[in-house]
Specification:
Aldehyde Oxidoreductase, domain 4; binds pteridine-2,4(1H,3H)-dione; 3 domains; alpha+beta; 766 residues; single chain; Aldehyde Oxidoreductase, domain 3; binds dioxothiomolybdenum(VI) ion; eight-stranded mixed sheet; five-stranded mixed sheet
């Protein structure tokens, strides 16, 4: 089975790490994690675990032959805690046994005592004591301080957004096979094979060429396996390397939910100034990012928050500051959108508050301020296209938003206990890793003598369809049927120094690398064809599996061409590298052109709230999305709808709760994600005549942007709530759970009532 096929995948036939056949002598690793959020380990006795039948070894930090350090951007995270623990769920001991159950039982038998230390969980508290992961950063444009005085309205407020559990279907997993000598082969469910290779080498004191990482596919990732697949692979590798036996680790769902990082919660302040027409003149915001106990990818995520601080809008005067705050929670990490959703939520909150205070329609303010072609972002880059306005207008037209508004207002007049709400949500998302050096990819293409083709790239298939897209690119570039092509596993021996498959750029960059490799092969084949047909190679091309001369088909088919090339000793393989051109960013001035291009789109979202019960539905979502020229329409529709629903989940029902640093929502009974029953009716359209000169085959990346349409669900709910309680000031505290809805609708009355009862009780007592 090739790795781009969708049907066997849907039938459940594709193999994940946990499905790989057990090699002889396989052992299983389990982890003892810290039960407390912060403390010193004062006693650790692993003998009760070691004495259990079937236990092969018990490993602590002292057993690590190389560096006990898995940090990427900042080296601040041990693989196994030594001396101190900094979050509940932090791995301390790895136990290896002949079954997963035994390994877990033995881990539970370990005796450990702590001296508990006070924990910090609130990012603002951490910031107040200067506990930052990296120094704060500020992006600015124009002169905000000067601009406030020319505004007709200035409003301030606070916005909170919660974390989000990735809930990939396949939990963190790795299988490590010792090879000859000290070498290891690692099967890992990772978005970043090279990170697994590099960090494992560091932990084991080996060279990167001692370690092969192979990734067939992941059962979802959403950013949760960009950095956070690494420790599990490293733990299994540590055990496999010391025991010279194959070792597997697969986290249970509860372990995964407790031990691994999630989307960062943000607490933010905003201030926005507008003129009487609703034109935004100035915007200021401060983001307190809850980074958790270690840096992980937090500084990069913080940076993307700043890049997306003004969303789809042009604001002439901006000052935004972001602080990455160290707390005693699991290290928060990459999650689809990578800090942009959090910043966009703040911007939309500011616009909403301004609309309320000014008595204007929120949609009018949005429309008035959309980016036009040539407008400058706070980081100095100019918008290359006018698609923010085009997609917004197209959404308003297609879904007749003005009529919807009237209908909903009439409905709300006629109904006392249910109210409907409406919101629009424009999205503008920059494509490229914000760390410029990561914007490179490579591919290796082999044409075999029977005419079949094998393609390897640095892209990891995680259900997002990157391999189907690469297949399309290769099929076009070689002029042959897709049925001849297989897309192989991602393997560090075939493609080295890969960037994580992340930042929505997997197909863009790896597709381009594959295209370059194919073109190199085709150029050689054209020379061969020119020789056979006695024409000039400039006249020759390959299409529909045959050589054409000046566009006319010849009798020389693909198989004959390949075979002739082989007998002429012409190479049928090519390796290629692609680096996104022109992008740059200067972190001193915080200016540059960090993105290859932007993806745009707009959504309109309708909701209904039951104002007695506090329950609600997200009824319908209409989207006009700019996909460039799609590489695969079906894949893009899947990303559009899946991203939207994941965003709605983050904004509405997915509530991550910690109590004194312990995750209270570590199962699917306490952490609710959208299911098919609460998925709205979705009508997605792609922007007509969309184009993009800056990505492979004029396509556009699609992985992350659609998630941010889901932000509109929060504001559509708020719109319904205001119809019931126009007297109350709205709030910006996501997720908008039914509890929060109920408290907004009736909470103040409840407090008054409680007070009355208390007074009455006091009177009785007297
Ligand atoms: N990962 C990363 C990302 O390392 N850098 C990025 O800019 C990024 N953006 C989105 C998602 N993952
Ligand atoms: Mo990512 S959030 O791993 O693209």
């Amino acid at each position: 089975m090739s790795n781009h096929e969708i049907a066997p995948h849907a039938r459940g036939e594709s193999l994940f790490v946990g499905d790989l056949p057990d090699p002889p002598g396989l052992l299983h690793a389990a982890v003892l994690a810290s039960p407390i959020p912060h403390g010193r380990i004062v006693r650790l006795d692993t003998t009760p675990a070691a004495e259990i039948d079937g236990v092969a070894c018990v490993l602590t930090a002292a057993d690590i032959p190389g560096e006990n350090q898995i940090g990427g951007i900042v080296q601040d995270e041990p693989l196994l805690a030594a001396g101190e623990v900094h979050f509940a769920g932090q791995p301390i001991v790895a136990v290896v046994a002949d079954s997963p159950r035994r390994a877990r039982r033995a881990a539970a038998a370990i005796e450990i005592e702590f001296e508990e230390l006070p924990g910090v969980f609130d990012p603002r508290h951490a910031a107040a004591t200067g506990s930052l992961i990296v120094p704060s950063r500020t992006f600015s444009l124009g002169d905000v301080d000067d601009a406030w005085s020319s505004c007709d309205a200035v409003v301030e407020g606070r916005a909170e957004s919660g974390g989000q559990e990735h809930l990939y279907l396949e939990t963190q997993s790795a299988l490590v096979l010792p090879q000859e000598g000290k070498r290891l082969k690692i099967f890992s469910s990772t978005q970043a094979p090279t990170a697994v290779q590099r960090i494992t080498a560091r932990v084991l004191g080996l060279a990167m060429n001692d370690i092969e990482v192979d990734v067939a596919r992941l059962g979802g990732a959403f950013g949760g396996k960009e950095d956070q697949a690494t420790p599990w692979a490293a733990i299994a590798a540590l055990a496999a390397s010391l025991l010279r036996r194959p070792v597997r680790i697969t986290l249970s769902r509860a372990e995964d939910m407790r031990m691994t990082g999630k989307r960062h919660p943000y607490s933010s302040d905003f201030k926005i100034g507008l003129n009487a027409d609703g034109k935004i003149l100035a915007y200021e915001a401060t983001y307190y990012q809850n980074a958790g106990a270690a840096a992980d990818l937090s500084p990069a995520i913080l940076e993307r928050s700043l890049f997306h601080s003004t969303g789809s809008y042009f604001v002439p005067n901006v000052r935004v500051t972001a602080l990455s705050c160290r707390t005693n929670l699991p290290p928060f990490t990459a999650f689809r959108g990578f800090g942009a959703p959090q910043a966009m939520f703040v911007m939309e909150s500011a616009i909403t508050r301004a609309a309320e205070v000014m008595g204007m329609d929120r949609i009018d303010i949005q429309r008035r301020n959309l980016l036009a072609e040539g407008d400058t972002f706070p980081y100095g880059m100019k918008a290359q296209q006018g698609n923010a306005r085009r997609s917004f207008a197209e959404t308003e037209r297609r879904f007749d938003v003005a009529r919807l508004r009237r209908e909903i207002d009439v409905y709300n007049c006629n109904n006392r206990l249910t109210k409907r709400g409406l919101a629009m949500m424009p999205v503008c998302f920059g494509i490229s890793f914000t760390s410029t050096f990561l914007n490179q990819a490579a591919a290796l293409v082999h044409v075999y003598t029977d005419g079949s083709v094998s393609v390897s790239t640095g892209a990891v298939e995680m259900g997002q369809g990157v391999n189907a897209k690469i297949l399309n690119v290769v099929s076009h570039a070689l002029g042959i049927d897709a049925g001849r092509i297989t897309v192989e596993t991602t393997n560090t021996l075939r493609v080295a120094n890969t960037s994580p498959t992340a930042a929505s750029s997997g197909a863009d960059m790896n597709g381009r690398a594959a295209q370059i490799a194919c073109r190199a092969i085709i150029d050689r084949l054209r020379e061969v064809a020119a020789e056979i047909l006695e024409v000039d190679s400039s006249q020759v091309s390959v299409s529909a599996e045959a050589v054409t001369v000046d566009g006319k088909p010849t009798k020389v088919g693909w198989n004959r061409l390949v075979s002739e090339a082989y007998f002429k000793r012409v190479s049928l393989s090519a390796q290629a590298h692609y680096a996104t051109p022109k992008i740059h960013f200067d972190r001193e001035t915080e200016k540059g052109e960090p993105f290859a291009y932007h993806v745009y789109g707009s959504a309109v979202i309708e909701t209904t709230v039951d104002c007695l019960r506090g329950t609600y539905t997200v009824d319908r979502v209409g989207i006009v999305h700019d996909a460039g020229r799609s590489l695969n329409q079906l894949v893009d529709v899947g990303q559009l709808e899946g991203g939207l629903v994941q965003g709605i989940g983050w904004m509405t029902m997915e509530e991550l709760l910690f109590e004194n640093g312990r995750n209270l929502t570590d199962s699917l009974s306490t952490y609710k994600i959208p299911d098919i029953l609460c998925t709205p009716e979705i009508e997605g359209h792609f922007l007509d005549d969309a184009d993009n000169p800056n990505a492979v085959m004029r396509s556009k990346a699609i992985g992350e942007p659609p998630l941010m349409y889901g932000i509109g669900a929060y504001f559509a709910l708020l719109d319904a709530l205001r119809a019931f309680r126009p007297d109350r000031e709205t709030f910006f505290h996501a997720p908008m759970t039914p509890e929060r809805v109920l408290m907004f609708l009736h909470g103040d009355r409840h407090a008054a009532l409680t007070e009355e009862i208390a007074e009455a009780a006091a009177v009785v007592q007297r």
